[in-house]
Amino acid sequence: MAARRISSLLTRSLSVSSSSVSTSLFSSLGKNSGRNGIGKRFSTAAALEDLIVPPVQIAYTQNLIDGKFVDAASGKTFPTYDPRTGDVIANVAEGDAEDIDRAVAAARKAFDEGPWPKMTPYERSRIMLRFADLVEKHSEELAALETWNNGKPHEQSAKSELPMFIRLFHYYAGWADKIHGLTVPADGPHHVQTLHEPIGVAGQIIPWNFPLIMFAWKVGPALACGNTIVLKTAEQTPLTALYVAKLFHEAGLPPGVLNVVSGYGPTAGAALASHMDVDKVAFTGSTDTGKIVLELAAKSNLKPVTLELGGKSPFIICEDADVDKAVELAHFALFFNQGQCCCAGSRTFVHERVYDEFIEKAKARALRRVVGDPFRKGVEQGPQIDTEQFEKVLRYIRAGIESNATLECGGDRLGTKGYFVQPTVFSNVMDDMLIAKDEIFGPVQSILKFKDIDEVIRRANNTRYGLAAGVFTKSVETANTLTRALRAGTVWVNCFDVFDAAIPFGGYKMSGIGREKGIYSLHNYLQVKAVVTPLKNPAWL
């Protein structure tokens, strides 16, 4: 998100009338219940049953192939849901292997025969800028649709993510006419140049937690480089991608350049990753699924793959920290987007000298968190995306209780319908507990204690992931030590989740391959060709 938008979300402190929490898990907690956890109340914006009707109509539910909305080849549809209630929003065309074949054929024809790769970079840039203007014009509908289909707070969609989406396309439009090769000196009488050429047909698979932002991260650099695209949406959140793809064609994008297929991973996703006529695949999602995508790409035509995968990011609060500020930032790092963020600061390491004070204040902040209908002003947390993720989060909470971590607050669902989970805080968490090792992807804060810098470096790096990390300290020396020692693709110092368009993002270890955003993302969608020509009697070499 844009840094100023994130800052406004972070510093806001909301407190409104409360409603009682369900305490069905508390009766069996015994010694593991928080010191004052039982009977506490969570802030809610309004009764969860009193929901606002989204101010938007569903316009596009078919697949977009070769510039036209079409039904799935099989005629099948699948439901997409409102996570506030579990009710069906719309039925969407269910693409499978045949639809992927049609989309890839359209993209291949558009790349080999169409005007897009042959268009001047400046004209491609102008189309991308016109698209960004259309998104801005329709931003109210898109923000409402994103919240309705995903469950994230409408204020987040409207004030942070839509502006960032527009900024990303401005950024990549600016790159379109600045991609060029080099002239390379050689040891003999030869003229050597490199050409940076579009890679061809790009297959892109995006996740459900940030549907619009992930669309921009994938589509922006691929189009700026002159490629054509087949994009598969997450089955949970197909609606905004279809809407903005339509706007792209209104902006003048030629048919076949951007094709959008909705469907399931084992059918449409697998067909795209293994397709012999796709030249490159980019995937964002879980590490386990990323392995499958990589395998399918390798076993088919050995196409290059970019992966942005899971994380279990450490957020390290040093002994010199301002505890109040550290509590707020750590809260934001974990609970933002309902905890459904691959880089969430989900292992909160706190120095032993400030640990007890931090626990009390972190619990109090979680109890003040405003949970409710994401369309209501002031709501900080909406529902989890679907029943599968909802149940997964609750299973991890039970695992934390069973492993003797101390449940300070939360621990159950909130309300009786939809997928709302109480903001949950565990203290006395050990490194070998599941809640400290696995990516929960929900509003569950695990707080661990450490004694010194060497210890926390070793423990923070003792994970299969390496996507991001956070450091909170007043000491430049401590910050420098930690930023160089932590094995992660991004380290935020005294901030978190700053996602400027130019800042590269990606992971070490099992958190992925390659980088999104910034100049580095262009490398994912370009081939480098060396051209060598003899020189006869050159005046100079």
From TrEMBL:
Keywords: NAD, Oxidoreductase. It is found in: Mitochondrion matrix. The active site is at E308. It holds the Pfam family Aldedh. Residues 69-531 form the Aldehyde dehydrogenase domain. It is an enzyme of class 1 (oxidoreductase). One of its GO terms (biological process) is carboxylic acid metabolic process. The keyword Phosphoprotein does not apply. Belongs to the aldehyde dehydrogenase family. This is aldehyde dehydrogenase (NAD(+)).
